[in-house]
Design a protein that fits this description.
This protein has helices spanning 7-14, 26-44, 65-76, 83-90, 93-105, 131-144, 152-163, 167-171, 176-184, 190-221, and strands at residues 47-50, 53-56, 81-82, 112-116, 120-124. With 222 residues, it is mainly alpha-helical. The protein has a single domain, classed as yeast vps74-n-term truncation variant fold (Orthogonal Bundle). Helix 7 packs parallel to helix 10 (190-221).
Length: 222
């Protein structure tokens, strides 16, 4: 079953090309992975989003290092914070590296070291076992084609792809009404819905910040 993957693992696999290149920009990947971790923990009942604040409600081990470390980080923060804050805090390279390392340990990806322009070190994660990703893709494709109803897991993955504006790139033209029904209806839990909204806001803010920085750089260099 697709659910044998964690939500962040499924999201990561969908954002990698078979040769290990990223199918989206790093910023989008990182924000999506941060949201995926929170969504997965919400589905498991490990965290809740009450009044928009992320709190740990069950600190039991999940069996996944990335998820368990995130629960520990949230619990250790001492102060309940909004999902948007956690998305921005978690959505960085260490999380990406940890998720990809987990997929490598499971034998789904391999590691390929190289150098860009013969100087800058690069790391790619070529596909080693495409079975799990193919299953996730077929599951989501069936839901988007109305051939099957979404599980909470599939609804979360579809919501994450939509929130990061990568759904159409991965699955082509989609029925927007259906996507809205999946992500805003009964299929996604209230906590997951809140996470998706926060990812969209975090992505918008990050894009605005990047555009502002680029404009400032151009002006400064003029």
């Amino acid at each position: 079953m697709a659910e044998m993957l964690t939500v962040p693992q499924a999201f990561a696999l969908l954002q990698l090309e078979p040769d290990g290149r990223k199918a989206t920009d790093v910023q989008t990947l990182d924000l999506g992975l941060a949201g995926a971790v929170l969504a997965d923990l919400a589905l498991r009942g490990s965290v809740s989003l009450r009044d928009g604040l992320v709190t740990v409600v069950d600190g039991s081990a999940t069996g996944d290092t990335v998820l368990d470390e995130t629960v520990g980080t949230v619990a250790a923060s001492g102060t309940p914070r909004k999902a948007k804050w956690w998305v921005q805090r978690l959505g960085k390279r260490p999380l990406r590296d940890a998720v990809l390392a987990g997929l490598t340990e499971r034998g789904l990806l391999s590691i390929e070291q190289g150098k860009a322009l013969g100087i800058f070190p690069t790391t790619k994660y070529p596909e080693r076992d495409g079975g799990p990703e193919a299953l996730v893709r077929s599951t989501i494709a069936d839901v988007l084609a109305r051939r099957s109803e979404p599980t909470p897991f599939a609804a979360a993955v579809i919501g994450l792809l939509d929130a990061t504006s990568t759904l159409r790139k991965q699955f082509g033209k989609v029925d927007r009404d259906l996507v809205t029904e999946i992500t805003s209806g009964a299929w996604a839990s209230p906590a997951v819905k809140a996470v998706l909204e926060e990812i969209q806001m975090a992505a918008i803010l990050a894009t605005v910040a990047a555009s502002t920085a680029a404009s400032t750089s151009v002006i400064a260099s003029s």
